[in-house]
Design goal:
heterodimer; A: alpha/beta; 20% strand; globular; B: alpha+beta; 6-stranded mixed β-sheet; 5-stranded mixed β-sheet; 20 helices; 22 strands; elongated
Chain lengths: 118, 728
């Protein structure tokens, strides 16, 4: 099961669809807060989150997730744009596993996912 | 694997539309109320979203344009670029261009002409953009200068930091990935750092590995495996050449790129602190800084502080943003559901009627309860289609701003009740008529500053848009404090155009209503803005197509007030149920003025024009529904029956009916969809007794009365075997 968080519906759909084709069951969140509510009590193998979201942004979500025992070691990938280099550092500091740079295509997404999940 | 991204395009276009609206709204607010961090954040985020999604879906033109727009906005919200009126104008224009670019993408049509021009201007405003000018990072590792696609041997020293697992990484995955790239692979495990079981932290990483492998992949591919490791982790990749192995003090060869910074974790090694890894793009550029160069923790800290502040601002803003939860629903599904609930209402009425027929004296509490629930359900379902008029008002704001600037007039817009809701279809269709009326106000209504000053008014004109609910209807008022309508000029033009004759007895209100007549315009010059005379009659027609009505009041020299009345929903109608012979018909209550029982003396016959009734001095044409609708074959005498006086497009008519059956809210069923369009009939409904009642269209009836019924039928292509009716 994978958690996909992005306030852009089209991006979310694309990522969800791509992961579904790789056999994942998807939980979608439109912002950090929404995501936290939806994963309570669920067993998640992978998290893909955008950084720029209203209500609760990606970095805060990563921090929140890492503070929960069931998410301590879950692979978390951030979606960033190339002009947000500082965000990568911030994300890593918050506990993110890795990142994906926009724009990316489904193959690239699956490639990076394969690095962090088996 | 082939995944077609086109399926997500529809969602993108819908989203982009919303983002563009937010941008425009934010920019307008910025213009009027000055630089506000939260507003800038909203605008920035909207542009950022569009950029991310458009580039993902291959819309490069859109992405490129949005990119430079986003940079400018980013620097504005950082305070690096100051907001000026010119800049706001440019940004608004850019939003328009962006909208056009996206539209072009959607329709596969050519982009607007001014794209390059605006693009350059945006670039000029945002001069040096450091972060942007880095080469685009792709996820594939960049090229290493010393890349050779030949087979080579490498030794990799992999020392994960103590906290390696905490970022969700698994060292074994990395090792497996290396193996997948290798033709020859050998791993050596180093467990020397593992403490005793009692002092070990199960969540910490203690193992290290030395890996020897042979691969034909480029070194950058090997580096790529360690893409995500943290600063504390050491991963040195050494290409094995003829040169002897390096001494412990300099593990860094010219062809190797370390992925670690300081090696604080393993205190017992003799390795010197390695140079701080700059967050440069992963292009494999060789980091040739001196081995013993001091790490630069401050730089990283500053960056972190900056981004902390940024994220704090973002969080604050998002907390302020209304946490209104919405669900996106397919419009067709919603309509189907509402239709079905309408059927439920009809079905319930039928059961209710059936009951009262069988048990005329008793009431079923269960049925009463059910009826209430069903009607509540219907109200709820209709409210699902309700949206606030705010977006439409915002469009007006933009129009007023642009137009008043173009004409050099000072105009202030005031709005009231923008959160008032009405049916989405109505909102979509009322936009253009409202736009036209607002443009009229700006163009012809409000005078120039000098004219206003000369008339003793404040130089700034005011247009007020008001929306509110009243008696089951949605009312929009457009009021301006301009010069008002010129009664005499209107009358003169109307007489000139043959719309009315000089001898007609017209009230002031009648005269103002003349502007809705087709082909009417008193503008001295037909400007490209308005005044072509095709506007107001189209406006009225559009309003009435929505089952609404429009009226206008004016005071010369003081201003003009247009009132548009619309039904709250197009799915149900407040109607007056009437019986004509053996059939029931519904007359829209909005059109009904009154009903009277006439005496024979009031009804007169006028040569060449049919029957009329004299109503308090007013002449009102008579329409015998029985004949017009072919409800029965015999004509009845004039004294029997009732008259229902209705009004349509400012004209009154009287309809002869047999009986008034009462007022009722009916569910509108579309006749065209189920049968075909019938002149004089607006739709149909199913009554509680299960029978169908036609909903009358007054405008259509009037047209029918003007031409023989049979002729009109023939023209509409309906097959009839009866002969034509008696037409006087």
């Amino acid at each position: 099961m994978a958690l996909v968080v992005d306030d852009s519906t089209s991006m979310r759909q694309m990522v969800a669809f791509t992961l579904e084709s790789a056999g994942y069951e998807i939980i979608e969140g439109k912002d950090g807060q929404d995501a936290l509510g939806k994963v309570a009590g669920k067993s998640i193998n992978l998290v893909i989150t955008d950084l720029n979201m209203p209500v609760m942004d990606g970095i805060t979500l990563i921090r929140e997730l890492r503070s929960q025992p069931s998410f301590k070691f879950t692979p978390i990938l951030m979606l960033t744009t190339e002009s947000q280099d500082s965000k990568k550092q911030e994300g890593k500091a918050a506990g993110a596993t890795g990142w994906l740079v926009k724009p990316f295509n489904p193959d690239q997404l699956l490639g990076v996912v394969a690095k962090v999940v088996h | 694997m082939e995944i077609d991204l086109n399926r997500f395009r529809a969602a993108f276009f819908e989203e982009a539309g919303e983002h563009l609206e937010n941008m425009e709204g934010g920019l307008l607010a910025l213009e009027t109320s000055g630089g506000n961090r939260e507003v800038l954040d909203t605008i920035f985020r909207a542009a950022h979203s569009i950029k991310g999604a458009s580039s993902t879906f291959g819309m490069d033109d859109v992405a490129r344009f949005t990119h430079v727009l986003e940079n400018l906005l980013d620097r504005m919200r950082d305070g690096e670029i100051l907001q000026t009126p010119d800049l706001c104008e440019l940004l608004l224009m850019s939003t328009d261009v962006l909208a056009e670019l996206i539209e072009a993408e959607k329709n596969q049509s050519p982009p607007p002409d001014n794209v390059d021009d605006v693009y350059l201007r945006l670039q000029q405003h945002s001069t040096s953009t450091t972060a942007v000018q880095q080469p685009t990072i792709s996820n594939a590792a960049g090229e290493d200068q010393s890349d050779a696609m030949t087979v080579a041997d490498y030794v990799i020293d992999f020392r994960p930091s103590r906290t390696f697992f905490q970022s969700g990484l698994n060292p074994l995955y990395l090792i497996e990935e290396l193996q997948s790239l290798s033709t020859k692979f050998e791993v050596q495990l180093d467990t020397t750092q593992l403490p005793s079981l009692s002092s070990m932290d199960p969540e910490a990483s203690y193992f290290c590995w030395t890996i020897r492998l042979t691969t034909s992949s480029a070194q950058s591919a090997l580096q790529d495996v360690f893409l995500f490791v943290d600063d504390q982790t050491l991963a040195t990749i050494q290409r094995v050449t003829e040169q002897p192995a390096a001494d412990a003090a300099s593990l860094l060869y010219s062809s190797a790129t370390p992925y670690s910074s300081h090696n604080a974790a393993s205190a017992d090694t003799e390795l010197p602190p390695l140079p701080q890894a700059e967050p440069s793009p992963i292009t494999g550029t060789v980091n040739m800084q001196p081995l013993l160069g001091a790490a630069k923790p401050e730089a990283l800290q500053d960056r972190r502080a900056g981004s902390d502040r940024r994220s704090q601002d973002l969080t604050a803003h998002s907390a302020l943003a209304a946490a209104k939860e919405t669900v996106r629903v397919d419009r067709e599904r919603l309509d189907k559901m509402i239709n079905q609930i309408g059927e439920l209402v009809i079905g319930t009425s039928m059961v209710e009627q059936d009951w009262s027929r069988r048990h005329p004296d008793s009431e079923s509490t269960a049925l009463v309860q059910l009826g209430k629930i069903v009607r509540d359900l219907q109200e709820m379902s209709l409210s699902l289609r309700m949206v606030p008029i705010a977006t439409t008002f915002q469009k007006m704001a933009r129009v007023i701003r642009d137009l008043s600037m173009k004409l050099g007039k000072q105009i202030r817009l005031e709005t009231e009740g923008e959160e008032t809701e009405l049916d989405k279809t109505v909102v979509d269709q009322i936009g253009d008529p409202l736009m036209h009326m607002v443009r009229n106000s700006v163009d012809h209504g409000i005078e120039s500053a000098e004219q206003r000053a000369a008339a003793g008014k404040s130089p700034e004109g005011c247009i007020c848009l008001k929306a509110y609910h009243q008696g089951g209807n949605f009312i929009i008022e457009i009021q301006d404090d301009g010069g008002g309508l010129d009664r005499d000029r209107i009358l003169k033009k109307a007489i000139e155009r043959g719309i009315v004759s000089a001898s007609d007895n017209l009230s002031d209100e009648d005269i103002y209503g003349l502007i809705f007549a087709a082909g009417f315009s008193t503008a001295e010059q037909v400007t490209d803005v308005s005044g072509r005379g095709v506007g107001m009659d189209v406006v009225r027609r559009n309003v009435e197509a929505l089952q609404g009505s429009i009226s206008i009041r004016s005071k010369h020299g003081q201003g003009c007030r247009i009132i548009v009345r619309l039904p709250l929903t197009l799915a149900i109608l407040d109607g007056l149920l009437v019986r004509v012979a053996n059939s029931s018909y519904v007359i829209p209550l909005l059109s009904v003025v009154e009903s009277i029982k006439p005496n024979a003396a009031q009804i007169k016959r006028v040569l060449g024009k049919g029957e009329i009734i004299s109503l308090r001095g007013e002449v009102v044409p008579l329409m015998r529904l029985e004949q017009m609708l072919n409800a029965s074959d015999h004509t009845r005498s004039s004294e029997d029956g009732l008259l229902v006086i209705v009004e349509d497009q400012g004209r009154k008519y009287s309809l002869v009916v047999d009986e008034l059956l009462g007022q009722q809210q009916v569910v509108i069923k579309n006749l065209e969809a189920n049968f075909q369009k019938v002149p004089g009939v607006a739709g149909a409904t199913i009554l509680g007794d299960g029978r169908v009642a036609l909903i009358l269209d007054i405008n259509g009836l009037h047209s029918l009365a003007a031409a023989p019924f049979a002729q009109a039928l023939a023209e509409s292509g309906i097959n009839r075997s009866h002969s034509s009716i008696d037409q006087t």
